[in-house]
Amino acid sequence: MPVRKKKGKIRILLFVFFALLFAVSAARLIRIEEENRQSRELNRDLVEMFFQEESREESRELEAEASRQEEEPAEILPAYDFAPLLALNQDTVGWLYIPEADVSQPVVQGTDNEYYLHRNIRGEAEYAGAVFMDYRCEWGISPNTVLYGHNMTDGSMFAPLKKYMEEEFGVSHPYFWYLTPEGVYRCEIFSVYLTTAGDEEYVQTEFTGGEWVRVLEEWRERSAYAFPEVELDAETKVLTLSTCNYAEVWEEGRQAIHAKLVLVGQNQE
Which of 207, 264, 265 is nearest to 238 (CA)? Predict the structure, then answer.
């Protein structure tokens, strides 16, 4: 075979190969983007299902009035109802509410840490998955309750948590909310830092008394900036948020936020 014809065939084969590779990659990206869109729509529906509309209107009116008066708005949480979520999925255990970071997500807990990694609250296959509690956690008993969520490229799920790596933002918003069927918890942040998937201690759920105090202080010292107002002791219960963050380590990079759980209201039902 002449060299010229052989080179021509090789070029054609390479062209076909890269064209197929491009088509497969493009199809995958389109599928992921469509799933992300559906995930955002589902979460909007869940927010409307969970938070009562009249309560959301009251919150907006209070904020608007405070803005007109150039005052800080009165802190008020929208009224909520877990019944529709529990009817949708009995694995529902809570709701994570961080309005300043635009995070408002239901929390589920499965029998392992794989099921909801790429399944939504309906149990449907979805790349974004759901925010889920570590299956080892026993709410109210485990000293460290861990919630996992993907850092999505479209800015959804736990992607906004990267804002807490900026000291100005974190110091200005030092707490968030965790809502459960039993009550409301203010989550007072005391540590924010980057770590890796190999760091098992930050997602460990059980500790002995003396070990727990040591770990709490180590987490505080690891923080990218200080939260000196938060008092920690052997009785402290912590909510930990974990997500991917590749700012320092590609693929294995993780971001941790540790917050002290403070019960501020109990449901009467």
Answer: 207
User: Which residues fall within 8 angstroms of residue 132, CB to CB, at 6 or more apart?
Assistant: 107, 108, 109, 110, 113, 115, 116, 117, 147, 148, 149
**Strand-strand pairing, 131-133 and 103-108:** parallel
The rounded distance, in Å, linking the Cα atoms of 26 and 189 is: 40
How many beta carbons lie within 10 A of that of residue 91, not counting itself?
20
The whole-angstrom separation of Cα 144 and Cα 131 is 16
Q: How far is CA 62 from the centre of its chain?
A: 27
Tokens of 184: 């409301």
Concatenated DSSP letters for 12-24? HHHHHHHHHHHHH
Phi/psi at 5 (nearest 5 deg)? Answer: -65, -40
**pTM for the complete prediction?**
0.82
What does the pLDDT look like over 101-140, one tens digit per residue? 999 999 999 999 999 999 999 999 999 999 999 999 999 9
| Distance in angstroms (rounded) separating the CA atoms of residues 209 and 217 | 13
Structural domain boundaries of the chain? 53-80, 89-266
Structure tokens at 210: 């003396």
CATH class of 89-266: mainly beta
244/148 Cα distance (integer angstroms):
9
Residue that is written with structure tokens 């736990």 in the block? 158
Q: What is the pLDDT of residues 82-93, one digit of tens each?
A: 999 999 999 999
Whether residue 22 has pLDDT greater than 70: no
Where helices occur in 51-183 by DSSP H, the ranges are: 53-68, 83-88, 167-172
